[in-house]
Amino acid sequence: MSIPTLETARLILRAPAPRDYPGFEATFTSYRARFMGGPLSEYESWMLYAAEIGHWKIHGFGMWVIADRTSGESCGMAGGWFPKGWPEREIAWMIWPGAEGRGIALEATHAARAWLYDRMGWDTAVTYLDPKNIRSVQLAERLGARPDPDAPTVDSHDIVYRHPGPAALRGSQLADGIAMENSTAKALFGTGGRID
Amino acid sequence: MTLHRALPIPTLRTARLTLRVPGPRDVTAMARFYASARSSFVGGPKDPEGAWRQLATEIGHWTLRGYGRWMVDLADTAQTCGIVGLWNPEGWPEPEIGWDLFDGFEGHGYATEAALATRDYAYGTLGWSTVISLVNPQNTASARVCARMGAVREGQVSRPHLGTLDVYRHPAPGGA
């Protein structure tokens, strides 16, 4: 099984590797993970990181590590997530502590969604969000996702956001708008620089 | 688009068993094992969701450590009888040989046969100089596997989710 590498203006989405684990652990053992089933112990966090990798082998898709194109440093994860028990296939993202505020999640998730639609043939996707997770709710909205009150939830505390399908996304103002946001972010933050 | 090089997981063969890479086809067997009382010594029982994640973790362990556990198939019928191999998640005292035998396959020496093959792999291919096994003190079947492999109890450790475990030290390479 090979995990593909995707490139965007500022980012590389690549296979999760051992060297990326510290950022994942920092995220999942902290209060930041309160909307993602955490905080977890270090053991639980490592087991979940290993499962992120195994997910690729089981389904042929999964969560990429997001890395800065220039420095190569990882700053989060984005991609497809469909563990057993999930009502349907999810597009998910997370940003390591300290890497927020640069539009990374938008740029990475937009690219991941395009790959899942084009290469995996998905015709729809959802994101499960805690309504208290304001930043992620805002990001879902910027990605064009909207609440789908009829869709089954994972744990009844979450809201299901449904993404625009491939046809709705293709050549839409939404896609153009995201591309514009990404190039603005590139101008503001550049491609390099340390992430911390 | 460039491709990440997939980690090759070697297939090991013994007289009666084939040790192979875990994959999607093992979802059902893992769910059945973690639903059974047999899993109570190794973190179970787990619901099918938890068993699925455990399978995914077993696969990812190979990428993160460069070694891991194999699914064990009977060579003649291709039935999967367990999961055996080298296990070392975050916080483990040191790498261990672990074995989970599925319901209905006990009493044939399969766990010992597979565990010996993975110990040979650890000592031979990986060049390890020592290895342990962690066993729940109530798990007399696994204690017997340790004895058959020549591993000796040297103490106890306590692990979250698993409680107190006996530490068995295997004979060093050449001494087995």
Structural notes for this entry:
- The complex is a heterodimer of chains A (196) and B (176).
- By secondary structure, chain A is α+β, with helices and mostly antiparallel strands.
- Chain A is built from 6 helices and 8 strands.
- Chain A has helices at 21-28, 42-59, 104-120, 134-142, 166-169, 173-189; strands at 4-7, 11-14, 63-68, 74-81, 90-95, 126-129, 146-147, 159-162.
- In chain B, 29% of the residues lie in helices and 27% in strands.
- Chain B is α+β, with helices and mostly antiparallel strands and 176 residues long.
- Chain B has a domain at 12-128: Aminopeptidase, CATH 3.40.630.
- A 5-stranded antiparallel sheet of chain B has the order 2-3-4-5-6, sandwiched between helices. Chain B has a 3-stranded antiparallel sheet with strand order 7-9-8, covered by helices on one side.
- The interface between A and B is medium-sized, with 33 and 33 residues.
Question: Nutshell version of this structure?
Answer:
The complex is a heterodimer of chains A (196) and B (176). Chain A is α+β, with helices and mostly antiparallel strands and 196 residues long.
Overall form of chain B: globular
User: Structural class of chain A, please?
Assistant: alpha+beta
Q: How large is the share of residues in beta strands of chain A?
A: 15-25%
Q: Supply the CATH architecture of chain A.
A: 3-Layer(aba) Sandwich
User: Which strand order does the major sheet of chain A show?
Assistant: 1-2-3-4-5
Most extensive interface between two protein chains, with residue counts: A-B, 33 and 33 residues
CATH architecture heading of the domain at 12-128 in chain B = 3-Layer(aba) Sandwich
Oligomer type: heterodimer
Percentage of residues in helical conformation of chain A: 25-40%
Number of self-contained structural domains of chain A: 1
Number of strands of chain B: 9
Mean pLDDT across every amino acid position of chain B? 94
CATH superfamily of the domain at 12-128 in chain B, called what? Answer: Gcn5-related N-acetyltransferase (GNAT)
Keywords (chain A): Transferase
Protein name (chain A): RimJ/RimL family protein N-acetyltransferase
GO molecular function (chain A): acyltransferase activity, transferring groups other than amino-acyl groups
Domain N-acetyltransferase (chain A): 10-146
